[in-house]
Amino acid sequence: MNSQQITLEVAGADIEFNVDDIKYNAFLNASAGKNKAQSVRNFLVNCTDADSEHRKELVKVLDSNSGAGFSILEPLLETFAPDLVVTVKNSKKVQKN
């Protein structure tokens, strides 16, 4: 299982995130619904240790800045799940009768 501890500087404070495949996959499944902003917030908060200063600082930033979750999410996911290069080698159109 892929598990990473990632520290991001957010609004001048270092916030430590513990991201793993289970949390990542749960986030992807939850974000398929209509409430994407809440899915992002839940993922970010769940990736910080409960009762830690990191979580307190994160919640303070999320509560005071609309859209902050998406700004934090992007570099976090780029670090945890970097882009994979995929190239289509063979593609054919199929005619239906």
Write out key terms for the chains shown.
single chain, 97 residues, alpha+beta, two-stranded antiparallel sheet, 2 strands, elongated
Task: Describe the structure in your own words.
The chain is an alpha+beta fold. Helix content is 47%, strand content 16%. It is built from 4 helices and 2 strands. It has helices spanning 21-30, 36-46, 53-64, 68-80; strands at 3-10, 13-20. It has a two-stranded antiparallel ribbon with strand order 1-2. The longest helix has 13 residues, at 68-80. The protein is elongated. The mean pLDDT is 93.
Mean pLDDT rating: 93
Major pleated sheet = 2 strands, antiparallel
Q: Could you tell me how far the N terminus lies from the C terminus, measured between alpha carbons in angstroms?
A: 46 Å
- Overall structural class, as computed from helix and strand content, comes to alpha+beta
Topology, number of strands = 2
What is the H/E order? EEHHHH
If helices are DSSP runs of H or I spanning 4 or more residues, what is the number of helices? 4
**Strand order, biggest sheet?**
1-2
Radius of gyration from the alpha-carbon trace, in angstroms: 17 Å
3D shape: elongated
* Proportion in β-strands: 15-25%
User: Stretches where pLDDT falls below 50 for ≥5 residues?
Assistant: none
Determine the fraction of residues in helical runs and give it as a percent range.
Answer: 40-55%
